[in-house]
Design brief:
By secondary structure, the chain is mainly α. The protein has a domain of 68 residues. Helix 2 crosses helix 3. The longest helix has 19 residues.
């Protein structure tokens, strides 16, 4: 049994895909995570997509700006989205743990044995 061969289509100039250099430069990977330091706008968009507050964005950005976007060992970070994902995970865990209260506002776990 013979396989069917695909029909070859001859492209005319009007059917050809035009590659415009301006379109290629308009699409960039700036917001994909590999560009360090990222634009604050890209970080804000990512945090808002994860249902975080703008105050979290500012805190995250300032923290890593102060560290000059480097690891603890002094090597440059490779992807800011990995850092943001970890930051968001830790923030959510902290909010769930404290239920929105600061540690010094939590009720004492030691029972009060005062005599009334």
């Amino acid at each position: 049994m013979l396989k069917r061969r695909a029909k070859r289509r001859i492209l005319h100039n009007e059917d050809a895909i035009k590659i415009d250099a301006d379109n290629l430069t308009a699409f960039s990977d700036l917001g994909m995570g590999c560009h360090i330091p990222p634009l604050v706008e890209h970080v804000a968009i990512y945090f808002l997509q994860q249902n975080m507050l703008l105050s979290d964005v500012q805190e995250f950005y300032r923290h890593y700006e102060n560290r000059q976007w480097k690891t603890i060992t002094g090597k440059p970070q490779k992807n800011w989205k990995v850092l943001a994902t970890d930051w968001i995970y830790n923030a959510v865990q902290q909010k769930n743990c404290w239920n929105g209260r600061k540690p010094n506002e939590l009720p004492s776990l030691i029972p009060d044995y005062r005599i009334m």
